[in-house]
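**Reference record**
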Amino acid sequence: MPYKKLPVLEVDGKPVAEADDVARYLARMYDLMGRNERDALICDELVETLGDLKQDDMGGLRVCSGP
């Protein structure tokens, strides 16, 4: 298991272990990246924004599920 973390996807017999890379690969494989390059750009932007929110580098911005 590369980098000793999940998720891991095996592609052509080789492991891929970065979650965003796995997600983008699967999105391309199953035609989920939009109809054109602009749509794909928006998808990438959303993925990166979610990553930023998870890292808590947004100067105190928090995502919460309750009061």
